[in-house]
Amino acid sequence: MILEGKRLVITGVITKDSIAYHVAEQAQREGAEIVLTSFGRVKRMTERAAQRLPEPVDVLELDVNREEDLAALTGTLRERWGRVDGVLHAIAFAPQDALGGKFMTAPAESASAAFQTSAFSLKALAAAVIELMPAGAGIVGLDFDASVAWPIYDWMGVAKAALESVTRYLARDLGPSGVRVNLVSAGPLGTVAAQGIPGFDQLADLWRRQAPLGWDVADPTPVARAVCWLLSEYAQGISGEIVHVDGGFHAVGAPVLPA
């Protein structure tokens, strides 16, 4: 029960296949009290998924690109709990014309949209909750290794590189308050969001063939456990870190695929 008594905000749940759903499920098993966030038409799907958790939870309205939603989140959490011990940032988006081999043709507005939603939003979310976070609290984001240029990932890869940089700056600025900020760089998993990436199966096949520990694209459990560990007091003293949960793939690399 490494999260016993902790109060966590978890973004990014769409269906029970979402990585964030499995984090929420694992967090409850570890003793945490949680709320989910969602918005728009997707919120109804999130609410259905929430009912399937071990303990049903509330879903708060949050479009992370809307200042009014962020302000409302702060007020709601202050009234509900008075403090927040941890946050999962599981938010990413890039328009279709910024993915799938369209790096050279993507318009600036699509690249900007990918950056704002996938990277700047980590800062925006942190700013919304930091005044409620005690020393020892943690923020964890979901990443996909941005140290190399992947086939088909294009401007989302650039946005993930920005996310990694944002994490380091947040670790610098929030550290004096005792708040830790880290990322989990996960191997490819068969989520709804991943299936929207053209050529996703190419990436997944690389992991199946080359991860030293093997890799199951249908099993998010290792990622969920790593997130819960980083949100727990067992990760005290760790900030600005990128923890790879990818079967060891990042350590051995892979042959270049045709674009």
Which features would summarize this protein structure in a list?
Rossmann fold; alpha/beta; 259 residues; seven-stranded parallel beta sheet; 9 helices
Supply the CATH class.
Alpha Beta
How many beta-strand runs? 7
Question: At CATH's second level, what is the architecture?
Answer: 3-Layer(aba) Sandwich
Mean pLDDT: 94
CATH topology heading: Rossmann fold
Strand content: 5-15%
Structural class: alpha/beta
Instruction: Determine Rg (CA atoms, Å).
Output: 17 Å
Sequence of secondary-structure elements = EHEHEHEHEHEHHHEH
CATH H level: which superfamily?
NAD(P)-binding Rossmann-like Domain
Distance between the termini: 45 Å
Low-confidence stretches: none
Largest sheet: 7 strands, parallel
Binned, the helix content reads: 40-55%
Strand order of the largest sheet: 3-2-1-4-5-6-7
Judging from the principal axes of the Cα atoms, what is the shape? globular
Number of helices: 9
- How many structural domains can be distinguished in the coordinates? 1
